[in-house]
Amino acid sequence: MLNLTHEDYRLPEVFALEGLGLMETGTTAPMKIRGVDKSSNERGQYVVKFYNSGRMSVKSSCRELVGAWIARELGINVIEPVIVDVSPKFIELLLGKGGYMAAQKSVGLNFGSVYESGFMEFIEGKKVMENHLFEQAKLIFMFDMFVSNDDRGAGKPNVMTNGKELLVYDHELAFSFADLLSFSQNPEPWIIGESEREMYERHYFYKYLRSRSIDFMPLVSKLEGINDVFWQKVNSQIPEHWRTEDLIKIREYLTKIVENKEIFAAQLTKVLLS
Questions:
Q1: C-beta of residue 217 within 8 angstroms of C-beta of residue 209
Q2: Chain mean pLDDT for the chain
Q3: Is 245 helix (H, G, I), strand (E, B) or coil?
Q4: Beta bridge partners of 32
């Protein structure tokens, strides 16, 4: 997957052809499908999250996209996002099958991703993580604190591995600060306070990183890539009706952290030692 800011990047738009069944897990009732890329005409397997299913919406679909783009820009392995075009004909083929009602209410553009094989859910094991995975876990922890993602916890890791790499997914609950009124938001989001304690303490990788004196400066330097060029590409690639005030709030909030990234790095080190 190319970074969003790469000159050759395009957000794939896939025409849904056939439903292959609901995935075994997921609050959003994701469905595995067969589809065709409208641009390249290549066929493949994808996972779609219908925007009127579970906790999905146009807003959460937008957050899924932006979360995946930011993760990739930081160098994190993330499931490649796509847009899935759900047609009435596709829905007819689902009649009598699981997912029919959600699909019926979600005609049009939906968030989806390329179906990844060869990975399995990261299972909690021994307390010491292999070094190559430990380095990736640090970056994922930093990313989740940056985007306020409270959905990579002990009960739902939302991370897979093939033994060599970690692969993240599910970011519809990221950017939770955008749901707050302006006066309720943290005026200094680069400071990780008591209100964020529950989020970082139940993060899936907290137990592996805790009590380690980790220098996050090399990692937060990657945040410089979340700049004006990045946000211009977001606006040019995201479906027009997904561009809401929510997106403006997200950009303004994250920009504050980027501008104070050195303090943010020190805060990350501090919470792991506290």
A1: no
A2: 93
A3: helix
A4: 47
| pTM given for the model | 0.95
Q: How confident is the model at residue 14 (pLDDT cuts 50, 70, 90)?
A: very high
- Stretch 45-67: mean pLDDT, rounded? 93
pLDDT in tens, 255-265: 999 999 999 99
SS3 for 232?
Answer: helix
Q: Provide the b/e sequence for 139-175 (b: ≥16 CB within 10 Å).
A: bbbbbbbbbbbbbbbeeebbbbbeeeebbbbbbbbbb
**What is the predicted pLDDT for the residue at 127?**
56
Give the C-alpha separation, 10 to 140, whole Å: 24
Mean pLDDT, residues 169-195: 90
Conformational region of residue 107, where left means phi above 0, alpha means psi within -120 to 50, and beta covers everything else:
beta
DSSP 248-260: HHHHHHHHHHHHT
Cα-only R_g, the chain: 19
Do 179 and 111 touch, CB atoms closer than 8 A? no
Res 54: pLDDT: 78
Measured distance CA(3)–CA(248) in Å, rounded: 21
Looking at 12-164, list the stretches that DSSP marks H as alpha helix, in order from N- to C-terminal side. 58-73, 88-93, 100-104, 131-146
Give the residue from 111, 56, 120 showing the smallest Cα distance to 82: 111
